[in-house]
Amino acid sequence: MKLGGREPETDNLKALSDEEIMVRCATGSEEAFQILVSRYRPRIINLITRFVGDVDRAEDIAQEVFIRVYRNRERYRKSGKFSTWIFTIAANLAKNEIRRKVRHRRVVSMDEEKEPGTSLASTLADRGPGPGQTLERKELENLILNAIEALPERYRLALVLRDLEGLAYEEVSRVLGIPGGTVRSRINRARLMVKDKLESFVRVDYL
Questions:
Q1: N or C: which end of the chain has fewer CB within 10 A?
Q2: CA–CA gap between residue 113 and residue 46 (Å, rounded)
């Protein structure tokens, strides 16, 4: 299996759906697998980065995602959406990473001085008065993303999958393995939490 470099991609393979390409992967086509990697690698890295807040670590985890896809290619069933399957793998690995980081933080002394200016609260405080302040679009996007990254895991996962990755509620439900009603509840709660975090700084039309 090769994750680096690009083998020649035929027009026939490019025209196939993800599910059809996975069938080709199951028969041993590395070219088909490389097409899937090229289609999904940026999205998977972006998704995991939103979960763990570390691009370098996200790239490592994304590598593991594709390794697992390749190893389990013969188990894939065309009846299911490939995007749901790969996002489920990515979300599970991201949750494992979050839990690993939480366990690591627990062994760090509570008296250890934190790096100044890294929390959302300090970032907003440094920006001064907000309601009348006009922000560039990029600045607002960064504030929203920072607020999302500060959410508790269960809310962050649901919100990222729905609002940043554009998955349908039903897909989010399958990826996270929770009922649809719980998905909607978590997403609505997450949106309110993000809005509350930013409202004192700038008027937010995120919802």
A1: C
A2: 30
29-42: burial string, b at 16+ Cβ within 10 Å, e else: bebbbbbbbebbbe
**pTM of the full structure:** 0.70
Q: For position 168, which CATH number holds?
A: 1.10.10.10
| Residue predicted with more confidence, 173 or 104 | 173
Mean pLDDT of the 74-87 span: 86
How far is the C-alpha of 43 from the C-alpha of 162, rounded, in Å? Answer: 13
The residue count of the chain comes to 207
Nearest to 146 by CA among 118, 107, 187, 188: 118
pLDDT band at residue 101 under the 50/70/90 scheme: low
Domain boundaries, position 140: 117-201
Residues 25 and 53 in one domain: yes
Question: Who wins on pLDDT, 203 or 43?
Answer: 43
> 117 is written with which tokens?
């200016």
